[in-house]
Write a structure and sequence with these properties.
alpha/beta, two-stranded antiparallel sheet, 157 residues, Rossmann fold, seven-stranded mixed sheet, 9 strands
């Protein structure tokens, strides 16, 4: 994966929770090498229930200096964390229970999307598809038969 000289592996096989967290940390460090943009940097996290989306987010949070316990925002929809990087806020959204972008209006999503110092990780992004949500990267986690997970990353242009 490349963007302005930065690179990151396109795929990784995770054999454990620890592997997935470690991959998330490396991915978070990669994101931190990228310059800010006009709006928030958005990452789409795709995968079935239990694939490891929130586990990967734990690793990303560690790379951003976040020490708080990371849990799925399934019921609260969104969690915000201050960071210790040039991206001052990490936003974790779980859109599993949502049916459209409008469902995020009460969370001031427009303001967050316009914040160039935010990184947004969105689980179940397909549920809230909108022209306003343009991920720069899609991370897909898939269960394999041997109890491993294949994690793939794809930069969108």
């Amino acid at each position: 994966m490349k963007e302005k000289g930065a690179s990151f592996p396109k795929s990784f096989v995770s054999s454990s929770t620890e592997d997935t967290i470690e991959f998330g940390k490396k991915f978070g460090f990669f994101i931190n090498t990228l310059p800010t943009t006009k709006g928030a940097r958005i990452v789409s996290l795709c995968g079935d229930l239990g694939a490891g989306k929130t586990t990967l987010t734990k690793g990303v949070a560690l790379a951003f200096g976040i020490k708080k316990k990371i849990t799925s925002p399934t019921f609260v929809l969104m969690k915000r964390f201050p960071t210790k990087t040039h991206y001052s806020t990490l936003v974790h959204i779980d859109a599993y229970r949502l049916s459209s972008f409008k469902d995020l209006h009460s969370l001031e999503i427009e303001k967050i999307l316009n914040d160039s110092h935010s990184i947004i990780l969105i689980e179940w992004i397909k549920n809230i598809s909108s022209k306003k949500i343009k991920p720069f990267c899609v991370v897909t986690l898939k269960h394999k038969k041997d109890r491993t997970r294949l994690i793939t990353t794809k930069i969108k242009k």
